[in-house]
Amino acid sequence: MLSLPKLLVIALVLGAIYYFFFRTPKPKPDQNNTTKKNQDKIEDAMSECPSCGTFVSVDDSFIKNGQYFCSKNCMNDSKK
After folding, report:
1. 67-69 and 62-64 beta bridge pairing
2. What's the rounded Cα separation, in Å, for the pair 64 and 58?
């Protein structure tokens, strides 16, 4: 039969083997934050309205002939 100290040593060795070889490393929080910040920068692209000069988010703008307008009024005024 194995004595208590031998069981503890075996348990420690098995735990160390698992810790160093089989556990999955956790992602570093800095990597996830950096990726999210880069995505926010891409999503917040701004463009200047050619009619009135107001800067508007590309997501909220109206597109006509490859130009980004801040409103339908500016888009219609560009015809003149």
Report:
1. antiparallel
2. 12
Q: Which CATH number fits domain 45-80: 3.40.109, 3.30.60, 3.30.310, 1.20.120?
A: 3.30.60
- Which residue in this structure is represented by tokens 């490859």? 66
Reading the chain (80 residues) residue by residue, the pLDDT tens digits are 778 999 999 999 999 999 988 888 777 666 555 566 666 555 668 889 998 999 998 888 888 888 999 999 998 887 65
State both tokens at 48.
Answer: 């200047």
d(CA 54, CA 48): 6
